[in-house]
């Protein structure tokens, strides 16, 4: 249970009390439970969607669902997104090693630059647009279903990033996960992803079962491919991964999943 509590502690603002000593191995292995922490976030966003849909029109509901996602995460990944894009904005000098060192220094700076602010604004705007489009086209019940799965899949996507990547720094929380995530914990994350996704398919009446089942392998392949590409991209730009680049990948994975779900279910039979 320690791994589960640590995962919830890392990815949400939900207060969790942990007893005993927490080692770096415990921290790294907690990544196996990131899909469960994502399910907690997704369930909160889904509940907010279904609740507010009874009161407000769709644009307001979409904004409140997005707010619920941001609040339960504490804006942690948005901050990582801003730091990553500030670092990517560093102009190249032609010296690869020097450029990487400068980007890492910019990323570590506590100040947020114009590019970082722009990245946050665009991420929130695009996420809102996608949620609103899902709601308008598919209805409240289907939107709740998509938001739940979005959080599960995007938080799971941390694990292939950590497992296949290497650390750009010799210290930091990112290095703890990257160097410490073992094959057993990585496999467990896949099992939990499958269990949560299949549970949603069986118990959520938003679409036909065939449509719900069909989304799962498509989303899994696309997010896994994105995770691998992100690892290679960060290797080239930063010499490896950091906690910030990992957090940024989760925000991008949210948008990727929303776009896939919108396209996939636009041809389905959602229940409003």
Would you write up a description of this structure?
The chain is built from 13 helices and no strands. It has helices at residues 2-11, 24-29, 34-52, 58-73, 76-88, 96-108, 114-138, 140-156, 158-164, 173-180, 183-203, 209-238, 243-265. By secondary structure, the chain is mainly α. The protein has one domain (2-14, 21-265). The longest helix is centred in the last third of the chain and has 30 residues, at 209-238. The radius of gyration is 18 Å and the shape is globular.
List the helices and strands and how they pair.
Layout: H1 2-11, H2 24-29, H3 34-52, H4 58-73, H5 76-88, H6 96-108, H7 114-138, H8 140-156, H9 158-164, H10 173-180, H11 183-203, H12 209-238, H13 243-265
Computed over alpha carbons, the radius of gyration is 18 Å
Shape: globular
Largest sheet: none
Order of helices and strands: HHHHHHHHHHHHH
Describe the oligomeric state of these chains in a short phrase: single chain
| N-to-C CA distance | 37 Å
Structural class: mainly alpha
Q: How many individual β-strands?
A: 0
| Beta-strand percent range | under 5%
Helix content: over 70%
Please mark out the parts with pLDDT under 50 across 5 or more consecutive residues, or reply none.
Answer: none
Could you say how many structural domains there are in total? 1
What is the mean pLDDT?
88
Total helices: the number is 13
How would you summarize this macromolecular structure in one to three sentences?
By secondary structure, this protein is mainly α.
Descriptors for this entry?
mainly alpha; 13 helices; single chain; 272 residues
């Amino acid at each position: 249970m320690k791994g589960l509590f640590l995962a919830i502690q890392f990815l949400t603002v939900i207060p969790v009390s942990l007893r005993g000593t927490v080692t770096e191995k415990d921290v790294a292995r907690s990544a196996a439970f990131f899909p469960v922490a994502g399910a907690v976030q997704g369930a909160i966003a889904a509940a907010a969607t279904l609740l507010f849909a009874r009161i407000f029109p769709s644009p307001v509901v979409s904004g409140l669902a997005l707010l619920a996602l941001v609040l339960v995460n504490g804006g942690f990944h948005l901050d990582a997104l801003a730091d990553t894009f500030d670092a990517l904005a560093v102009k190249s000098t032609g010296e690869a090693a020097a450029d990487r060192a400068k980007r890492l220094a910019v990323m570590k700076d506590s100040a947020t630059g114009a590019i970082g602010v722009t990245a946050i604004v665009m991420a929130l705007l695009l996420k809102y647009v996608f949620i609103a489009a899902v709601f308008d086209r598919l209805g409240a019940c289907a939107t709740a279903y998509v938001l739940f799965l979005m959080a599960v899949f995007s938080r799971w996507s941390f694990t292939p990033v950590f497992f296949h990547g290497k650390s750009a720094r010799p210290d930091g929380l990112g290095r703890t996960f990257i160097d410490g995530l073992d094959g057993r914990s990585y496999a467990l994350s896949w099992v939990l992803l499958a269990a949560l996704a299949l549970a949603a398919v069986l118990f959520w009446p938003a679409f036909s079962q065939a449509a719900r089942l069909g989304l799962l392998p498509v989303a899994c392949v696309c997010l896994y491919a994105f995770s691998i590409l992100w690892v290679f991209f960060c290797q080239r730009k930063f010499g490896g991964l950091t906690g910030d680049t990992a957090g940024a990948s989760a925000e991008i994975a949210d948008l990727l999943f929303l776009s896939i779900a919108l396209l996939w279910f636009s041809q389905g039979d959602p229940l409003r």
